Amino acid sequence: MERKFEVDIQVIVHATxxxxxxxxxxxxxxxxxxxxxxxQSLQGHHENPITLLLCKLKKxxxxxxxxxxxxxxxxxxxxxxxxDLQNRCDESALYLxxxxxxxxxxxxxxxxxxxxxxxxxTPIYTQKDLIKTYAEVLSQGRI
Length: 143
Fold this sequence. Notes:
Number of strands: 6
Largest sheet: 6 strands, antiparallel
Structural class: alpha+beta
CATH architecture: 2-Layer Sandwich
Radius of gyration: 15 Å
Oligomer: single chain
């Protein structure tokens, strides 16, 4: 049985970054169109312009995103993520961050700084099952 996934994507784009390159990277890597994102114009602490990109994926689009993500994260990075699942999961969701700069270069690399925030959700009802389920998804690529 296929799991039902939802994915929330959040990207902060600073004025010095090329928004077009970020949209192109999402298109190339995940087949996500610019129109699938909500774009908010914000102002930073020093009145610098910031663009916030938000995207919510459901059903097949979310499954495809998760499959690509799991397939393309390097194995050594995936092992570290799996070891740290206890700290990355909460209320049926898995929280990950990937490098914005590496995505533009065509790579999916976990990162904490200047990152793209991902929230992957699938209905799971107990904490024990939560860790087990996401460990299976990440290690076996079983969606």
